[in-house]
Amino acid sequence: MKLYHIAKNSFFRRKTRMVFLILGLLIAISTVVTLITITRTMQEDIAVKLDEFGANILILPKSDNLSLSYGGMNVSGFSFNTNELNDTAIPKIRTIKNSENISIIAPKLLNVGKVQQQEVLVAGVNFDEEIRIKKWWSLIGNIPKQKGEAVIGAEVKNKLKLGLNRTVKINKKIFSIVGVLEETGSQDDGLIFIDLREAQELFNKPQMLSLIEVSALCYNCPIEEIVRQTSEILPAAKVVAVRQTIKNKMDTMHRFESFTIGISVIILLVGALIVFTTMSSSVSERKREIGIFRALGFRQKHVLNIVLLEGFFVSFITGFFGYFVGLLISGFTAPVLGVTTFSLSIDPVLLLGATLLSIIIGTGSSFYPAYKASRLDPSFALRTL
Fold first, then answer.
1. Between 95 and 38, whose confidence is greater?
2. pLDDT at 121 over 70
3. Burial class for 327, CB neighbours closer than 10 Å (0-12, 13-18, 19+)
4. Running DSSP on this structure, what letter comes out for residue 99?
């Protein structure tokens, strides 16, 4: 009879103890798999939502003299530009190598308009993209759907005594106010928003743009590489990554990772303790069996291998099935946590990792009990017969 036969027979003889051991380790492994799967899915889901919650790349025309300010950055708007930015830049951005990471492209034309004998900053925008990139906007009224409609910021409303369903004359052209922004605490409060094409006509700047805001899905993506690729296809533009926005997003992702690692370590330590306690108890109960093995000529390494093989059997079975249990739990847990992008698919790398991790914990925790069993004095063990 070979050593693994002895280990296998011992495994099936002590069914109750081994079931308890398997359940303990199974809970640990499946919980870790669930945490990793859910955290990974939540990171991707949250990353998409965060990336669509504002721009993280600004594209500006290269200029020697900048005169307007938008979002804390100077933006050109007059004739001092050494280079120009126009509508042709938008399809070019969609052609970069990492174009699949580009979520939203929101072009803008900024200029100063005369309203009630006062100068007001007017922003020509693509309203569909603007609403997507600024989900924090709280709009009273409607989004402009046709020409001659405008949205005003809270500061403009108070300063010029304007309101919903009123009209405003910008450079001798009448616009109907269909929407009013509630206070945002940003530069948007002091702007009047009109359609981009109308703004280009109104200020006699056909196809011209002042800047382009880009939201790139930068979860595990090379944001600097996206900037470099965009700069190459737009040599007349200055492409800037909004580093603070990116840093905040990445910090959020890392907090999820740290939480998962911390909880996983604690759970695995508990699983290792269960294995250690169970195997130690098993060795204490098997002194007579071990004494007989030693009396029959089994060496210390043979006894050591028998106990370690038992631990290996348990941990291999637990790791393999623990992955699938964890995957199923993830499928039920993800919708509860508000994750909408989860799909039940087998990850071979995580399956292999879960199995190897279980084997390491199972055999590692069995080593001391196995070593202790191999050091038993045969004569002492046989006295219990």
1. 95
2. yes
3. buried
4. G
Instruction: Tell me the chain's radius of gyration from C-alpha atoms.
Output: 33
Q: Give the pair of three-digit tokens for residue 366.
A: 């069995």
For residue 249, give the 3-state DSSP assignment.
Answer: helix
- Rounded CA-CA distance 265/260 in Å is 9
- Please state the length of the chain: 385
- Reported as a single tens digit per residue, the pLDDT across 209-257 is 999 998 887 655 567 788 889 999 998 888 887 755 555 555 666 676 7
Supply the pTM of this predicted model. 0.57
- Start-to-end CA span in the chain (Å): 23
Tell me the DSSP string of 132-163. HH-TT--EEE----STTEEEE-HHHHHHHT--
C-alpha 267 chain-centroid distance: 23
In this structure, which long-range contacts are made by residues 91-96, counting pairs with CB atoms below 8 Å and at least 24 apart in sequence? 92/233, 92/234, 93/59, 93/212, 93/214, 93/230, 93/233, 93/234, 95/233, 96/226, 96/229, 96/230, 96/233
User: Chain centroid to CA 201: how far?
Assistant: 42
Amino acid identity for residue 64 in this structure? D
Over residues 97-118, mean pLDDT: 88
Residues 80/240, Cβ–Cβ less than 8 Å: no
Give me 139's structure tokens. Answer: 């709009």
